[in-house]
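Need the bound structure for protoporphyrin IX containing FE, inputs here:
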Amino acid sequence: MKELPRLPFDNPDILGIAPRMRALQREGPITRVRTAGEDAWLVTRYDEVRALLADRRLGLSNPYPERSVKSAARGFMMALMAGDDYDTEATGHPLMRELLVPRFSTRRMRLMKTRIERHVDELLDQLASSTAPVDLHHALSFPLPTMVVCDLLGVPLADRERFGQWARGTFDQSDNQHSANTFQQVVDYMTELVARKRIEPGDDILSELIAEKGGTLSDADIAQLGNAVLLFGYETTIVRIDMGVLLLLRNPVQRALLAESPELAPAAVEEILRLSVGGKGSNALIPRYAHSDVTVGDTVIRTGDAVMLAIGAANIDGRAFPDSDLFDLARVRPKPHLAFGHGTRHCIGRVLARIELTAVFERLFRRLPDLRLAVPEESLRWQEHRITGGFDELPVTF
Ligand code: HEM
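Answer from helper R.:
Posting the output first, comments after.
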């Protein structure tokens, strides 16, 4: 019998889609693969991935949890998304969204945009006045999204040094103990913060949640929602700032266009999001389980089967994006990429993430026109063991 392709697929490049993933996409929309925890269906084409993200017959929870082995990191992530328990996902997940989505109101986003733009200007001033080489990851990519999370949760900026490594630790799939210890620190911190907000409310998400549902939510419920905002709210964006810089450095013509015309920044951000797949591509796979039988083409996905929705591969599917590998600021009416997912679990922080990324890429190459890597690109190390992936440093000169 032919051996199944085994995820994750090797990639000679630190960015982009692995050759094996591309080959499977050419062969068809869906294929059986082997993963560390269990065999799964891998879906690689745009139309099928998008349709399945919106299909309520697929869920995050596993109807047969005893059949699979998953890391502590994956377990925490599923719990934060109210998708760790098959019996409660159908009620718990809509409730989570009902409570979290209104927290990202237009009013709050407008206020945050102004603060974010000011903060980017300050960070770039500091960067420009330091002596190169500088680690752009620590000077820009890390401080901005962590400031945003401080704002959302109403904590002092100084706390970002405390929680800054928590997302990486919690979502470290290589060390269950480290993941569990780190997650416990997050839970303790958030529980204390909720107690503090009950006494001293502010203009922040936790204070709003305390007042929700006639004040009936428990501290533990509120802390759980706060943990999701904390742990999903910064590392994802840090990774995209670093990758956006790399993608634009690889595309000097597009970068020059952007530096000349900052109004192209929103288009640049969409291309960055579309093409932001790193290393072996694990940061661009969305896991699901079939909660009832689902047919894709000639394939029947049976109840309980694991499904991997390859959003990174879907985002370079030539059927949806002509010349899909090109970073192109002038794409005409591009289809929506799937970097924030789609459908029932569409990213709750996507407006905010776009504001952050736009503020950065409107300014970065104007403020530092000679920006370039200070090390060979091949020496950068993609952190495959984290669910979120990413780099630990990005040394640049300017
Ligand atoms: C560029 C940055 C970001 C990227 C690429 C990203 C990506 C994603 C993706 C792909 C999903 C869907 C996962 C799935 O369907 O299983 C998701 C969900 C989510 N994201 Fe984001 N995200 C980003 C930023 C943020 C920010 C800034 C926040 C909050 C401050 C946030 C909060 C969430 C939450 C709470 C969910 C869970 C939604 C649910 O399960 O219904 N994200 N994100």
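Comments: The chain has 17 helices and ten strands. Strands lie at 30-34, 39-43, 58-59, 134-135, 285-290, 294-296, 299-301, 306-310, 372-373, 395-397.
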